[in-house]
């Protein structure tokens, strides 16, 4: 790895919306509710852009937008599989998650596609 590798600065001025994120584990409780493994309250970038995709099962999925949070919101989880996002009086389901990295290998942001 090269010396003097720096982090890309995050645009903090774009974090303009408060959100609460519940992260779920696979499986259900005895009451049939999802198992909540963590809750995050933070400011985020919420980009509402509808997109329709076909899932691997062949079902149609309508995505509502993308939520971008600074850094890694769940550093102890190897993969964010499911959860809910509460934002601007909306309750959205997490469809997918990605964590792009800085050149030095640290997590730059957590990107959630929501439906």
pLDDT under 50 segments (min length 5)?
A: none
H/I helix tally: 0
Percentage of residues in strands = over 45%
* First and last CA, distance: 39 Å
- CATH class category label: Mainly Beta
Biggest sheet, open or closed, and with what strands and sense?
A: 6 strands, antiparallel, barrel
Overall pLDDT confidence: 91
- CATH architecture verdict: Beta Barrel
Strand-pairing-aware structural class: mainly beta
Strand count: 6
| H/E topology pattern | EEEEEE
Biggest sheet strand line-up: 1-2-3-6-5-4
In words, what does this structure look like?
This protein has a single domain, classed as Thrombin, subunit H (Beta Barrel). The protein has strands spanning 17-28, 34-54, 60-70, 82-87, 90-98, 109-114. The chain is globular and about 50 Å long. Strands 1-2-3-6-5-4 form a 6-stranded antiparallel barrel. The chain has no helices and 6 strands. A hairpin with a 5-residue loop joins strand 2 (34-54) and strand 3. Helices cover 0% and strands 57% of the residues. With 115 residues, the chain is mainly β.
Keywords:
six-stranded antiparallel barrel, mainly beta, 57% strand, 0% helix, single chain, globular, 115 residues, 6 strands, Thrombin, subunit H
């Amino acid at each position: 790895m090269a010396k003097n590798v720096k982090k890309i600065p995050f645009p903090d001025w774009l974090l303009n919306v408060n959100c609460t994120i519940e992260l779920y584990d696979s499986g259900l409780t005895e009451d049939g509710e999802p198992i909540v493994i963590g809750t995050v309250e933070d400011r985020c970038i919420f980009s509402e852009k509808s997109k329709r995709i076909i899932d691997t099962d062949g079902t149609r999925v309508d995505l509502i937008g993308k939520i971008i949070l600074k850094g890694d919101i769940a550093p102890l989880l190897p993969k964010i599989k499911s959860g809910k996002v509460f934002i601007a009086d909306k309750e959205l389901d997490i469809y997918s998650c990605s964590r792009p990295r800085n050149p030095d290998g640290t997590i730059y942001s957590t990107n959630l596609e929501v439906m």
